[in-house]
Amino acid sequence: MSASRASASGSRNKPLPSQTNGVAAAASNGRRSRSSATRQRGNNDEGSGLDGDADGENDPAAARQRKRLRQIKHEAMDGAAAAARGPMGDSQTQPEAEASTSTARTSSLTPPPSMPTASDAGSTALAEIKREEQMLNSHSQAGPSQATDGEDEEIEAGPSSGRQTQPETAAAAFQSDENAIERDADGFIPGSIVRVKLENFLTYDSVEFAPGPHLNMIIGPNGTGKSAIVCAIALGLGWKPATLGRAKDVAAFVKQGQEDGFTEIELKGPIGERNTVIKRIIHRKNNQNEYRLNGKKATSNEIKEAVQHFDIDVGNLCCFLPQDKVAEFARMDPSRLLIETEKAAGDGNLEHWHEKLVGYGAEVRDLEGKLQEERDEQQNLEQRNEVLSRDVDRFEEKRRLEDEVALLEVRLPFAEYTRARTAYSKARDAKIERKADLNALRQANQPLERKVDDMKEEQRKLESRKQRWEEKVKKLDREIMKHVKTVDELDTDMTDLYGSMENMKSREKMHQSLIAKLKQEIATLEAIIGQQPQQADTSDVDQALRQTRASMRQIEERQRAIQERIEDIGIENHSLHSTKDETLRKLQRLDDARGRKIQMLRTADAHAVKAIEWLRANQNLFQQKVYEPVMLEVSVKDSRATAHVESCINWQQMRTFVCQTRADYDLFTRELVDKHKLKLNVSELEGARSTRQMEAQRPFQIDDIRRMGFDDFVCNLVEAPEPVMQFLYSSCNVHTIPVAFGDTVNLEQAESTKQLRRYIANGANHTIQYSEYGNRLPQTMSRDLNAPRTLTQTANQAEKKRLEQVMKDVAEKLSETESKVGELQGDLAREKEAMAEEKAKKEDLERQRQDALRALHEWERAKVDADQKRKRLDMELRKPSAQQERQRIAKQLESKTLKRLEAVSTLHGIVVDQVQLRAEVDVALLAELQHASNYSAWKSYLHTKDNDFIEAENRYKDASLALEQAKKACDKHRESAQARLDLLPQEVKDRFEEEQQQEADRNEPAMDIGQIQSQLFEKRAALELAQGVSPAVVEAYKKRAAQIKSLDESIIIKERDLVKKMTKLEKIKEKWYPELDRLVKQVSEKFSAAFDRIGCAGEVRLSEADDHHYEKWGIDILVKFRDSENLQLLTGQRQSGGERSLSTILYLMSLTELYRCPFSLVDEINQGMDQRAERAVHDQMVEVTCRSSAGQYFLITPKLLTELRYHERMKVLIINNGEWMPEKLSLARYAKLATGGMAGGAATASGSSGRAIVV
């Protein structure tokens, strides 16, 4: 039997008449409405009224209230009618419920004997209806309330809360202690859970149960799957596993041993609409899930929208408190508790208003801080500028003189420009006068010019007509040539036909002679065919030929194999040569990197380059190799470390030559420093410690620095010959400097060793100095890393060695392949000799075979020749006779003759047309020649009349040239003046233009050049006597003045923004604070009353913050469990676990009637309470959650006390889960035994209001 088989504990009775016929609905309009028809968004209608008459007929709120009252009347009447059928009615029959292995159903509740009848419920409903009608009438007579003043769109646009807010009109008086929620006939409000089904979910194989519309107590031993139901509700409604505080992956909720599982939750739909069914299928394999919404595939966003439509918020601890989140609720700070409370209860806009206040508060604080900073800065700048004002005045006086001198210096070239412009005006007037003379002469010659132009046009027309006639003649010429060619072709064809007819007799004679010859040859061949020779025996020769051919094929195969091997070696050689060339190019690039370094060194240190050139030519003079400057020998392994390495090696060390012995050092310095007078850095290493010795003596090793967060030592980031590395170790300490490429260094750990002196991290080179006294406190100096310059062109030594080895390997392989090719070519030559011998043998055998078969071949050839000649004879005999051929030629001659006659006739007509057309062309040509002569005469006459015009034109050209020269001179002076003007500051330039405009407005003559020069001399003399002030002082003064002006403008803008934001903030606060205060007071009142009933004290307060810190506002829960104590803040540490649980559940119950969420849940909240507290909490929970104004509530608990109070509206769900569960369980039988007083299978728990059967 499966260990997780679950069974239901019973089935729930159908609703009683009092529940279905109006008791739950017969109340005031309540705090909220769950139906889609009455769902409201925001609080835009709160406290507002519409225009209408005095009796309220046009008030929408009153109309809705009247409609609802009429509905309640009908329900109450139905309830009263149901009383006649008895208190239980037909609908109270309890069906027998049996649970199979894979199904779980809900437990059964039976009403107590004292339960009110449907008649009592109907009477109560009618009484409440009358009270509501009276209040509604009073509300209508009072008239609609005035709408509150609106604010700007940004403030009014709040989120949709999905809750109908409480009206502030007289209709609010409808709310009584039994504030009913609008429910459907089955007692559920929209969004309530009406069914839960699980399969392969945590401990369950399969279970399905139906909660009640009010309090649902889910009990069962530990480990049976109570919390699994909590998980199923949260995950089934689309929330993530993190909401539960348990597993992170959704796959962890699939039952062990199963690959897939699902949850299916049915939510009550809006009244009159169908329910919403949400199914979540979980796959263990890929930790994925999929959703179904009302049986159709859906996305997580669509599920989220469907759930939010009912205002369900499983993530809010005030509405949904899983077992693992109970302690978290007590640890919530007041600010978060306030936010969660706003989300769960009260006005739907509270959270939105709060968010706006937090944002505006931060903006207001930021603006106030910036305003104060700018005001302080403005005051400081003004004080500093007062000190410099007198120096600035003196500077301005000198500046004024300089400006006047500059103005006069500009006036001088402008005066020259004015003079040049006057000359230009005179030249322009002269040109205009000459142009008028020229136009007068041109007008006088216009009639003659028109005559010549008309004759020219007539000449053009005559030439065009002549061309058209000539084109027609050419066309006729082409037609004539075409027909002449046709006649010639027909003549040629007819001549050929006459020749063929004359040669007919000779061809006939030749034809007969050919027939006779063919017959004679056929007879000869038939005689030969009649004597067939015998078949010769060539089997021995054929056998020898086959053997020879086989031997030749074998030789060819061997030759082909040798040739293929040679070709393969050739391909390999080609690949080796390509590798060699590529390697040489890479080595060249590495050498180029070294060359670029030398070029860089040549620019920075020419002496070092000369020393390198001398060293390369004289390296053989030294005992051991002398190394070139360090910058040429060192290469960086990792390009990221280039700047790090350069920061550890200074320029003097970069240009140092390294000698390995003292003798080499003396020789090098004597030759280059003493003789050649070069300034060099040289180091010698004789007696120096090795790199291994120096690494062994450093304070840290590689593992030590990596534990501190470093990546490596600098020495491990470079490569160089061993002597060069010795120099870097001893001179630069690269073996002791750690490097970190990321932000991973634990500096406190590194400094605690008191031995780390230098390190590189975070883009800087850090040096640490430790005090010699006391605690040897560290002091760190940092220097940012510069961009690398010297080692950017780094030659990779390891790569160079690898490439040289590749070159060596390639050379060896090439030598081997060349040797193999020689051997193969020798083999190939021997095979070719053998092939020649076989070919000679084959040719000899073929000759022997041909001699033996020659007679037979000649006989067979005679047969073939005889067949061919018979065919030829037959073809000659079938040719037509001479008479037939003559008749065919005669017909062709007749046809050709008729075509020739037709062509000659057409040609005659075309020739006649051509003669006529040529005559017309001659006439047109004569007319054109005559007109051309007349045109030439008139044109010559016009030319004689143009002398005066030419003289006038020359005078006009001279005037134009003079004007152009005057314009150039004017432009030159203007450009010079403009260039001088452009050099002036803008303010001086504006002043010059202003003075020029004033002179033009006053119509005063401008100063001449002499006056300007005189004033310029005076101003320059006055300028030499003026005292100077540093321009930097004036610049600082003006800069601060501009800053003061900018700050003043910024302050005005910020003050205006501050007023706007404060106005918005206050408008929102005027809405938010009263609603929040009312909510907190309501919660505190219920919370205090709950604590009073258990002999303790509790209070809920609104914690306010100053300076617009609305994010610091919160809700403080204060509790007192002993008389000797004062009220203390509820925290996660101060109270015991039971006290925290008690405070939490009482706070949540205080919110019950204020919830917007259609259901709430708490899991094992009663754990840790003593019996007295647990019993009191249970009683209060039953009282609060079973009111008609309360929504659906789930309480998860592993146990219950005896003699507890129950209510007919609550439902107890018992989890029977385990491997010893029977296959079928008759819950009806056990219920019958329990109600009949029999013991052994049932236990009862009774209270003052009801009874629950626990199986």
How would you describe the overall organization of this protein?
- With 1255 residues, the protein is of the alpha+beta class.
- Among the domains are: 224 residues, P-loop containing nucleotide triphosphate hydrolases (Rossmann fold, 3-Layer(aba) Sandwich), CATH 3.40.50.300; 156 residues, no CATH class.
- 57% of the residues lie in helices and 10% in strands.
- It is built from 32 helices and 30 strands.
- The strands form 10 sheets. Strands 5-4-7-8-9-10 form a 6-stranded antiparallel beta sheet, with helices on one face. Strands 11-24-25-6-26 form a 5-stranded parallel beta sheet, with helices on both faces. Strands 3-30-29 form a 3-stranded antiparallel beta sheet, with helices on one face.
- The longest helix is centred in the middle third of the chain and has 66 residues.
- The radius of gyration is 60 Å and the shape is extended.
- The two termini are 21 Å apart.
- The N terminus and C terminus are likely disordered.
Question: Keywords for this structure?
Answer:
single chain, 1255 residues, alpha+beta, Rossmann fold, 57% helix, extended, disordered N terminus, disordered C terminus
Q: What's the CATH topology label of the domain at 192-331 and 1161-1232 and 1243-1254?
A: Rossmann fold
Helical element count?
32
Oligomer state of the chains in this structure: single chain
Distance between the ends: 21 Å
Radius of gyration: 60 Å
CATH architecture of the domain at 192-331 and 1161-1232 and 1243-1254: 3-Layer(aba) Sandwich
| Model regions low in confidence, pLDDT < 50 over at least 5 residues | 1-65, 76-133, 135-178, 1237-1255
Report the structural category.
alpha+beta
Major β-sheet strand ordering: 5-4-7-8-9-10
Number of strand segments: 30
Under the CATH scheme, which class of the domain at 192-331 and 1161-1232 and 1243-1254? Alpha Beta
Average of pLDDT: 75
CATH superfamily of the domain at 192-331 and 1161-1232 and 1243-1254: P-loop containing nucleotide triphosphate hydrolases
What does the largest sheet look like?
6 strands, antiparallel
Shape: extended
Give the strand content: 5-15%
Fraction in helix: 55-70%
